[in-house]
Design a protein that fits this description.
The protein has 112 residues and is mainly α. It has 2 domains: 32 residues; 76 residues. It is 92% helix and 0% strand. Helix 3 runs antiparallel to helix 4. It is elongated. The protein starts with a helix and ends with a helix.
């Protein structure tokens, strides 16, 4: 009976080793694209930082428009004030959207 315990321990060790190798290969398969030089180049590019900054600003302005519409719908402001503020926010948003389109094209070039 002592031999059965020893052989079972060797089988367990072999199974654990196999599971470890499978886990390692799975991890590498999933995260390999993130670890490649090409993606590091993209994420460190000034284009990417500018893109993130502009996306944050765009989101902020869109939330401002949403809040403005909510205030107008609840009667907290007049239609003239609403249209004036909405126009102001949209005029601020237009160049950001144009630059985001330009950066999208530039980022595609960096990736390729």
């Amino acid at each position: 009976m002592i031999r059965i315990g020893r052989s079972r321990s060797k089988v367990d060790l072999a199974l654990y080793s196999l599971c470890g190798l499978i886990s390692l290969f799975s991890f590498l398969f999933i995260f390999w694209p993130i670890l490649t030089k090409q993606n590091k180049k993209v994420f460190n590019a000034p284009i990417f930082r500018e893109l993130q900054s502009l996306q944050f600003e765009r989101l902020r302005l869109l939330e401002n428009i949403q809040d403005l519409e909510s205030d107008f719908n609840f009667g907290k402001m007049t239609e003239a004030d609403f249209l004036d503020l909405q126009s102001s926010i949209l005029s601020e948003l237009a160049p950001i959207m144009a630059r985001l389109k330009e950066l999208d094209v530039e980022l595609e070039k960096v990736i390729k």
